[in-house]
């Protein structure tokens, strides 16, 4: 079952780590946010503005199911775990890895980036509240890596180590 799902809060580094891990393991990588933008021909900001969050979540669940191929790393949007069906689907299809990041670091990493509609206002408070709300769902993952003070290469090696020891993963 070589499908790997990277989950975690905005700015955790899912997209960045996914690209690095795909080189390290010679696997394909796909990103649900990128694919939603391609399919809808709109930015995520515009989807939220014009269609609303509920419609975005619908696109997200549909895309998740379409992208979950064998030998693929699927990097997800920060809110993919909100829908219990998405969580169940990822667990059935592959190995789920949670990238945990402290709120202070999320704030730093997202500071110059206006592409995340849920952080458009009251960013600091929003990060703390949303992360606390979502933590129990993130922690349902098979593995957790704290990314706060680590380089992209260190995190990638840590994940490669988990996978090498996981009987479900075939190198
Ligand atoms: N380990 C790291 N150390 C320092 N900076 C990092 C690290 N991982 C990611 N970054 C930087 O943090 C920012 C956010 O990373 P990225 O877009 O990969 O996060 P994400 O989890 O995919 O977020 P989103 O859920 O919004 O898609 C980028 O500028 C990236 O270069
Ligand atoms: O955490 C979230 O709810 C989101 C994270 C981003 O990856 C995007 O999927 C979108 O901005 C929503
Ligand atoms: Mg991303």
Please provide a written account of the structure.
With 171 residues, the protein is of the alpha/beta class. The chain has one domain: Rossmann fold, CATH 3.40.50.300. The chain is built from 8 helices and 5 strands, in the order E-H-E-H-H-H-E-H-E-H-H-E-H. The protein has helices at 14-25, 32-40, 44-51, 53-67, 84-93, 103-110, 123-138, 152-165; strands at residues 3-8, 28-31, 72-75, 95-100, 143-146. Strands 2-3-1-4-5 form a 5-stranded parallel β-sheet, with helices on both faces. Helix 6 packs across helix 7. The protein is globular, with a radius of gyration of 15 Å. 32% of the residues are buried.
Question: Helices, strands, pairings?
Answer:
Layout: E1 3-8, H1 14-25, E2 28-31, H2 32-40, H3 44-51, H4 53-67, E3 72-75, H5 84-93, E4 95-100, H6 103-110, H7 123-138, E5 143-146, H8 152-165
Parallel strand pairs: 1-3, 1-4, 2-3, 4-5
Helix pairs in contact: 1-8, 2-4, 3-4, 6-7
The structure holds adenosine-5'-triphosphate (ATP), (3R,4S,5R)-3,4,5-trihydroxycyclohex-1-ENE-1-carboxylic acid and magnesium ion.
Subcellular location: Cytoplasm
Protein name: Shikimate kinase
Cofactor: Mg(2+)
Can you give me a brief rundown of this structure?
This protein is α/β, with parallel strands linked by helices and 171 residues long. The chain contains eight helices and five strands.
What are the defining features of this structure?
single chain, 171 residues, alpha/beta, Rossmann fold, five-stranded parallel β-sheet, 8 helices, 5 strands, 14% strand, binds adenosine-5'-triphosphate, binds (3R,4S,5R)-3,4,5-trihydroxycyclohex-1-ENE-1-carboxylic acid, binds magnesium ion, transferase, Shikimate kinase
């Amino acid at each position: 079952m070589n499908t790997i799902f990277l989950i975690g809060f905005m700015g955790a580094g899912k997209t960045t780590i996914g690209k690095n891990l795909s080189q390290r393991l010679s696997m394909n990588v796909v990103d649900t946010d990128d694919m939603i933008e391609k399919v809808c021909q709109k930015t995520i900001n515009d989807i939220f503005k014009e269609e609303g969050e509920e419609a975005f979540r619908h696109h997200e669940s549909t895309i998740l199911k379409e992208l979950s191929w064998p030998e693929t790393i699927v990097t997800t949007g920060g809110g993919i775990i909100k829908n219990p069906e998405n969580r169940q689907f990822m667990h059935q299809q592959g190995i789920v890895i949670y990238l945990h990041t402290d709120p202070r670091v999320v704030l730093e990493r997202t500071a110059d980036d206006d592409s995340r509609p849920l952080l458009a206002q009251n960013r600091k408070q929003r990060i703390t509240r949303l992360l606390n709300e979502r933590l129990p769902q993130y922690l349902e993952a098979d593995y957790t890596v704290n990314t706060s003070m680590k380089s992209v290469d260190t995190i990638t090696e840590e994940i490669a180590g988990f996978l090498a020891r996981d009987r479900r993963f075939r190198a």
